[in-house]
Amino acid sequence: MSTVADKLAKKSTHKTPAKQVRLRLVYIDFWSAVKLSFLVAVAVSIVTVVSYFLIYLVVSATLLTRLDEFFTSFTDGGATLSQYVGLPQVMAFAAIVAILNLVIVTVMGAVMAGIYNLAVKVTGGLLVGFTSN
Fold it and tell me: What is the three-class DSSP state of 54?
C-alpha cells in the first residue's frame, strides 16, 4: 500500500524542468506609480529627518562649542552660533527638506510613469524574462 507521504516523496525526487516565460512590460498604471513613489518618498523623508537629528547630535557634541567660540570672536560677543543653529532650527529645516522631498519624489514618480508609457508607444516596451523554480 502506498501512502500520501510516499507519493509526495516520489514527486519531490523527480525534477521538472523550469518553465521560462518572456513578457513585455507595455504599461505602468499611473496611480500605482504615484502610490509607490509616495511610499518611497515617505521612507526617504523619515531617513532624512533622523539623519539630520543624528548629525546635529554629533556636531553639537564635538564641534559646536569650538565653532561658537570662533563665531563669537567675529561678532565681538554680540551673537553666538548656538542662537541660530539649535535643535529646533535644525529639525525645522529637516522637516522642510523632508516635505519638499516628499512632494518632488511623488511628482517625479508620476512623471516617470507617464514618460515610460509614452516611450512604450515608440519602443514597444521592456522585455522581461521570468522562470519558475
Answer: helix
pTM, 2 dp:
0.72
pLDDT value, residue 63: 84
Place of cell 521560462: 20
Task: Kindly state the greatest CA–CA separation across the chain.
Answer: 98
Nearest to 127 by CA among 20, 12, 15: 20
Q: 82, 68 in Cβ contact below 8 A?
A: yes
The C-alpha cell that represents 18 in the structure block = 523550469
Distances (CA, A) of 67 to 21, 41, 55, 59, 81: 62, 34, 15, 10, 7
